[in-house]
Please model this.
Amino acid sequence: MNERRVTLADVAAKAGVHVTTVSLAIRNHPRLPEKTRLRIQKLATEMGYAPDPFLRALVSYRVRNTPRRNPPTIAYVSNWATRWGWKKVTAHPQFFAGAQAAAKDMGFNLEHFWMREPGLTQGRLSHILYSRGIKGVIIASHGREMGDALQFDWANFSAVKIDYFPHQPALHNVTNNQLDIARLAIQKVMAAGYKRIGFVMHRGWDHAVDHLWTAGCLCEQQMLPAGERIPAYLFPTSQPVDHWLNEGKPETEPESGAFAKWLEKYKPEVIVSKASFVLPVFKKLGLRVPKDIAFVDLFLEDFKGETAGVRQNHETVGALAVEILAGQLQYNKFGIPKIPTTTYVEGTWFDGASCPPR
Model:
């Protein structure tokens, strides 16, 4: 016969406090003094108390389905050259849309804050969020040229980062699994019978994902004979770092002359890249897809079957950021985590006429 589950009331009776006090202590609520929280948490552990997952699910369901007059706000913090510039860049609008939908579903209000408002400093924004009672922060759409560290009063916030920048502080992170997305694309290309595989990527974009695209490309190339391995083409090829680092600038494409020389030298059968990077250059060079060269899109947005590639599922990234943040807020976990975690979202492969089997 199973022993009776230890309840909050049991812990409260043993501790000589109200049930509400035990509930706050278990959730690590800052309303209670740290000494009181630790004492009750230690007692609950000794008594064998464990939360009821079914009861928690019921409470979560009721919260989601009960309209709130004043829903709590989650801050969606961007640091781009302009307030809405990130909406014109691949992935970032979908990150926001996914986060917004998940926030609404979970009973939160998602509000955008732009770090480069005139006169706004990082310290002042941190103070504004705290003053408004905003405890949850999503750090997203942070241009890689904007600096690599954020100076917030992190002890006041639960925070989750979308994508790789800024690197500091080391927060819990949600992003696309760019390493495996590149590997998936090349694996599918190999399975279709192609051997000479060209990988083309903007140098700044590869830098923005900590070089995981080129890492995935190099990993899969080890499966090919040495004579069939083609070095990745990263462009711009000769310009200084400050030219290609700025993510706020419009998308660019390889310089057709240098790209044509690379094509002539290595003679790839298929190009794995982003459509806006290479298709305009193919047109300039008179190359037809797939008759002259096959093509796979790492950022597939057209699912009609004309183009082969990988859908990156950006909306899922934004939604997961909110879900992870909500869990942090539920247990009042504030500050920089001792052990930050990264949650990767996989890509989805789609066959297409641009890369037919050989």
Observations:
- The chain is about 40% helix and 15% strand.
- The mean pLDDT is 89.
- The longest helix spans residues 314-330.
- The chain has three domains: 8-51, 73-177+316-347, 178-311.
